[in-house]
Amino acid sequence: MTTHPSSVHPGQAALARELAKRGLLSAEWREIWEQTPRHRFVPDPAWRQLRRSCELVTGQERMDLIYSDEPVVTQLDNGEEGGPGIATSSNSMPSMVARQLGALDVRPGHRVLEIGTATGYVSALLCRRVGEENVFTVEIDGVLAAQARANLAAEGLHPTTAVADGELGLPAHAPYDRILSTCALRWVPPSLVGQLAPGGVLVTPMTDVFYGGATVRLARQESGDLSGRFFHGATYMPMRSHRLEKLGPPDATTARRRDTGLDPERLYPLGFALYGSARLPGVRMTHGFHQDVRTVWLQAEDGSAAVAGGGTVTVYGPRDLWAEIAEVEAEYAARGRPDPQCFGLTVTAHGQHLWWDTPAGVIPSKEPHSATGR
To answer: Residue 346 has what DSSP assignment?
Structure first.
């Protein structure tokens, strides 16, 4: 595989050089990245993801965004007109793509299934690494799939593409040596587990009601289970069937306000969020600012909730979620506040569970607190 310097887009060359400098691209991958200019896979219009909305980018500003280490939003509202402007597809942050491909550890000749074709950019990178005949990619959105096929064909690449629900995988061509999901999963679908070859690897961003996102590398064990460690935080759009429905507001008549010594800042690290998601299953946590004050919101499906910031907390409903999360944070601190890489995930025929340190260190769920005690 030869890359001629004169044919390398300067923006792509600079991006590949920076990723290689950060240790995210091997020599083989850097050559492939230089051959695959990102702008050829980003449609016009495109958007920048802001904190609460998406901003249209055009002209040089669009090109500057494309050749930065930032995601580029490529679809709003599932492509429907008149929506609220919510990002529903994107060309992912280059450094995260590089990390995922590094964790995937693909070799020439490996058969790879990609879940979420989107623009076709990652498919193109994979084609140039393992051969287009070994790349199989699934996209649930027919319009996006057609655009991706056109983008890939313009590059002379023709992997097997299918319009289908990624949760089902692509059984007709299984098994696969590697599976890469470019959308976040709340659970690893049994169909993907079954389509992974013995000794195979699945890399995917995971998301939970308690944390925004973390990427995990799972290897298939002799037992057929998948197990592996989280290796980096990553906020990806969830698979459509894994999107979360909003809960209604808590019952204000049950509000109880009190002082708290637990700083919301201590709940932000991803390591804590992974631990807390296992200890408090079903509890939702979000954080941000309210009137310029760092704030955490907790909510459960039974109507329990808590809002904390500025040294006070207001608790709602039948459970005292703030007391529960304070105990879990104390447990996490007692473990030495481990980093995300200390946590892992095991997927079995009976479900999935998080662990700490080793797969034997399963993190059990915690008993709820009632408003008046345990």
So the answer is: E
pTM for this one? Answer: 0.91
Return the structure tokens found at 226.
Answer: 């998948």
Residuewise pLDDT in 10s, the chain (374 residues): 333 334 678 999 999 999 999 999 999 999 999 999 999 999 999 999 987 789 999 999 999 999 999 999 999 888 888 888 888 888 899 999 999 999 999 999 999 999 999 999 999 999 999 999 999 999 999 999 999 999 999 999 999 999 999 999 999 999 999 999 999 999 999 999 999 999 999 999 999 888 888 999 999 999 999 999 999 888 777 887 777 777 888 999 999 999 999 999 999 999 999 999 999 999 999 988 777 778 999 999 999 999 999 999 999 999 999 999 999 999 999 999 999 999 999 999 889 999 999 999 999 999 887 665 44
Report how many helices (DSSP H) and strands (DSSP E) the chain contains, helices first.
Answer: 9, 18
Dihedral sign from CA coordinates of 340, 341, 343, 344: positive
CA distance 318 to 206: 29
| Structure tokens given for 175 | 């098994």
Q: Which of 90, 92, 123, 304 is catalytic?
A: 92
**Catalytic residue status for 92:** yes
Residue 161: what are its φ and ψ, rounded to 5°? -120, 150
- Going by C-alpha positions, the residue among 322, 303, 315, 314 that lies closest to residue 251 is 303
CA of 45: how far to CAs of 42, 48, 79, 137, 346, in Å? Answer: 8, 11, 12, 24, 40
Give, in degrees to the nearest 5, the angle at Cα 361 between 346 and 99. 50
Compute the 3-state secondary structure of the chain and give helix, strand, coil in percent, each to the nearest 5: 35, 30, 35
Name the 3-class secondary structure at 21.
helix
- The Cα 206–Cα 239 span in angstroms is 10
Chain Cα centroid distance, residue 250 = 28
Q: Cα(115)–Cα(348) distance, rounded to whole angstroms? A: 20
Beta bridge partners of 115: 138, 181
Phi, psi dihedrals of residue 198, rounded to the nearest 5°:
-55, 130
State the DSSP H helix or E strand holding residue 152, giving kind and residue range, or none if neither. Answer: helix 142-154
Please report which helix (H) or strand (E) contains residue 98, including its range: helix 94-104
Reduce the DSSP state of residue 189 to 3 states and report it. coil
